[in-house]
């Protein structure tokens, strides 16, 4: 019971850090004397990278024991872990793609506001976007929504569903333009559920972390190349 209470407090702390980490961006804003009303996309990427880097260091410190233990298990079971990760990622990706197509065809009022914002930043700086969107964000999100949630939900099914739907929901709610946008919780959650399931299946945080990094990085590179071809 004492351990569970500690995990609850720790998860609460991690979620607070995740939601308010953007406040750290005021440090370079103050130091560089930036006008917060006229921040360019490249400056925003630098600010995001700054706050994400500090948040990641804090999360690594909080979960250093698990990260060390799971890394040891990763080296001894890399093939099995990658096999499970790729399999469940592909399932989540297919569900995400199909649901996205259905929403875009039949619910035209819905807009993926989060995706539009990410794409705008990606096209501002290829290198910085790969670091922030492709690497930093996935690691932070896996430690926040997978590792911290796994510590408080002993039931694997409940853990997978809760981490997946909360993960997907926040991606939509934080950039909500209308109630129709809530339909996009389905594709975002499908991938979140896939990440949660592969973590629960392998009992190794690096499984979902590696697949999340792979997913974001590939999509970021595809977006960059697509923009280059169009231009």
**Count of separate DSSP helical elements:** 10
Outline the biggest β-sheet. Answer: none
Termini separation comes to 59 Å
Radius of gyration, CA atoms, in whole angstroms: 18 Å
The count of strands amounts to 0
Average of the residue pLDDT scores: 90
* Overall 3D shape: globular
Weakly predicted, low-confidence segments: none
The helix/strand order is HHHHHHHHHH
Query: How many separate domains make up the residues?
Result: 1
Structural class: mainly alpha
Helix content: over 70%
Sheet-strand content, in percent, reads under 5%
Task: Give an account of the 3D structure.
This protein is mainly α. The chain has one domain (2-230). 81% of the residues lie in helices and 0% in strands. The protein has 10 helices and no strands. It has helices at 2-20, 26-32, 41-62, 64-76, 78-106, 113-122, 126-150, 156-173, 185-202, 205-230. Helix 1 (2-20) packs antiparallel against helix 7 (126-150), helix 3 runs parallel beside helix 7 and helix 5 crosses helix 10. The radius of gyration is 18 Å and the shape is globular. The N and C termini lie far apart (59 Å). The model has no long low-confidence stretch (mean pLDDT 90).
């Amino acid at each position: 019971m004492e351990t569970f209470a500690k995990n609850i407090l720790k998860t609460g702390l991690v979620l607070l850090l995740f939601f308010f980490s953007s406040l750290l961006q005021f440090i370079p804003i103050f130091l560089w004397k930036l006008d917060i009303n006229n921040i360019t996309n490249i400056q925003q990427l630098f600010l995001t990278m700054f706050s994400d880097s500090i948040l990641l260091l804090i999360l690594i410190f909080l979960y250093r024991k698990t990260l060390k233990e799971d890394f040891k298990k990763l080296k001894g079971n890399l093939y099995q872990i990658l096999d499970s990760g790729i399999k469940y990622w592909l399932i989540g990706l297919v569900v995400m793609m199909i649901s996205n197509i259905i929403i875009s065809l039949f619910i035209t009022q819905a807009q993926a506001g989060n995706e539009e914002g990410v794409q705008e930043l990606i096209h501002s700086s290829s290198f910085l976007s790969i670091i922030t969107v492709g690497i930093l964000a996935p690691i932070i999100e896996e430690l926040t929504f997978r590792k911290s949630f796994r510590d408080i939900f002993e039931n694997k099914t409940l853990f997978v569903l809760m981490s997946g739907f909360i993960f997907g929901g926040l991606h939509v709610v934080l950039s909500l333009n209308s109630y129709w946008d809530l339909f996009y919780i389905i594709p975002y959650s499908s991938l979140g559920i896939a990440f949660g399931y592969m973590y629960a299946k392998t009992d190794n945080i690096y499984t979902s972390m590696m697949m999340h990094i792979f997913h974001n990085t590939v999509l970021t590179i595809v977006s960059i190349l697509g923009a280059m071809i169009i231009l």
